[in-house]
Amino acid sequence: MTNEIRQKQSKALSWIVSLLNQHQISFLICGGLAAIGYGSNRKLNDIDLFVTSNHFNKVVSLGDEYISKPAQRYCEATEGWDLEYVQFVKHDIKIEIGNPAGAKIFDSSRHVWTPLKLDFSRVKYKTILGIEIPLMDQRALIDYKKKLRRPVDLQDIEVMAQPSLHM
Q1: Domain assignment of residue 97, yes or no
Q2: Number of Cβ atoms within 10 Å of the Cβ of 167
Q3: What single string gives the DSSP state of each residue in the chain?
Q4: For position 88, which CATH number holds?
Q5: Is the whole model's pTM more than 0.90, yes or no?
Q6: How many angstroms separate the CA atoms of 71 and 86, rounded?
Q7: In the chain, how many domains are there?
Q8: pLDDT (tens digit, 9 = 90+) per residue, 95-113?
Q9: Which of 48, 69, 83, 137 could cysteine-pair with 31, CB 3.0–4.6 Å?
């Protein structure tokens, strides 16, 4: 990753974390950034996070000027997601913020949509890109990546499932 991209990612992450903290909105980082926090060394495509459902609409309005995909329910079968989310672009970096209410992921081994259960009380704080952030619980992250089974998920699982790493 180039230094310029890393700086943009750090600025975008800093912006959203500051915004959420300023308004005392609980959140957890999931997806690639969480996997990186637990040892994956892959390229970061975007910043994925969830906020508590009672704060979702407030977050949408707070970031209104940076919306690149409006807040609505999206069913993206190829990605294995069925949930309400909004996408912001800040410093050329996509930030996708999900609403956990009714969120589902596709369990590719069973070929069924299954509820995505998120526990905002079970997070691990790590400093990534120079910013301390709450990561989704590692076991829960591995569990949902095992269901999705996209190539990037399998790559993340391989690193995160190693017992001595990052627990």
Answers
A1: yes
A2: 11
A3: --HHHHHHHHHHHHHHHHHHHHTT--EEEEHHHHHHHTT--SPP--EEEEE-GGGHHHHHHHTGGGEEEEEEEEEETTTTEEEEEEEEEETTEEEEEEEEEEEEEEETTTTEEEE----TTSEEEEEETTEEEEEEPHHHHHHHHHHH--HHHHHHHHHHT-TTS--
A4: 3.30.460.40
A5: yes
A6: 4
A7: 1
A8: 999 999 999 999 999 999 9
A9: 48
